[in-house]
Amino acid sequence: MTWSTRELAELAGTNVRTVRHYHDVGLLEQPERGSNGYKRYGVAHLLRVLRIKRLSDLGIPLSQIAERGEDEYPRESLHTLDAELAATIERLQRIRMELALILRQGTHTDLPPDLAPITAEFTEADRAYTVILNRVLGPTALDSLREMLTTSDAADPAMADFDNLPADADEQTREKVAEQVTPYARKLQVTYPNLNTVHDSPVGPQRAAQALALALKDLYNEAQFDVLLRVNRSLAAAEQD
């Protein structure tokens, strides 16, 4: 008793295309052909297809099945698969925990659950900048950022003037706001010296610094960006004294 390709596929619970693919990648030997030229499959072929399908359903790649040949118990591949599944389960469990927090807090998804509630009252620009910080900063600076956001007192009143600064603010107003913000910025610099560290950035220090500079210029209006530049110059000058 032999079977055609279609019959073999039906018996194995698969389809003709899959059986042909097994042939193409060297997983299944070509059967003999009948006098009519059609392939005739036997029990050995059915067993082989069933074993390939079982291993594939478990998650073992066809390339690894091919490497093992007729091995019915690919121990190494199974151990590798088990380790990969354990890592996947751990990742999915972590994601579910984050989703539970997000759903409970009703916060946005672009920041980790521990940061999202803290930034809920931020201006749109501050929050967007924090999203970018969370991506480009390395562990050292991120630890400082979290510490600053979770332990610092309410923002300095001078930041309210900065947040409300119109893009067409005149020179005198810009300088006044810069003078008000500088002491607060210096305090943060002293309290959290690693906040501006980019040496361990996941995207590299140069790209991280470039991304942060571009974000400041794009997210804040012209007057606010000018104030930030003035504050930065004041801090740099103080360090040289």
From TrEMBL:
<dbReference type="GO" id="GO:0003677">
    <property type="term" value="F:DNA binding"/>
</dbReference>
<dbReference type="Pfam" id="PF13411">
    <property type="entry name" value="MerR_1"/>
</dbReference>
<dbReference type="GO" id="GO:0003700">
    <property type="term" value="F:DNA-binding transcription factor activity"/>
</dbReference>
<dbReference type="InterPro" id="IPR009061">
    <property type="entry name" value="DNA-bd_dom_put_sf"/>
</dbReference>
<protein>
    <submittedName>
        <fullName>MerR family transcriptional regulator</fullName>
    </submittedName>
</protein>
<feature type="domain" description="HTH merR-type">
    <location>
        <begin position="2"/>
        <end position="71"/>
    </location>
</feature>
<keyword id="KW-0238">DNA-binding</keyword>
<dbReference type="InterPro" id="IPR047057">
    <property type="entry name" value="MerR_fam"/>
</dbReference>
<dbReference type="InterPro" id="IPR000551">
    <property type="entry name" value="MerR-type_HTH_dom"/>
</dbReference>
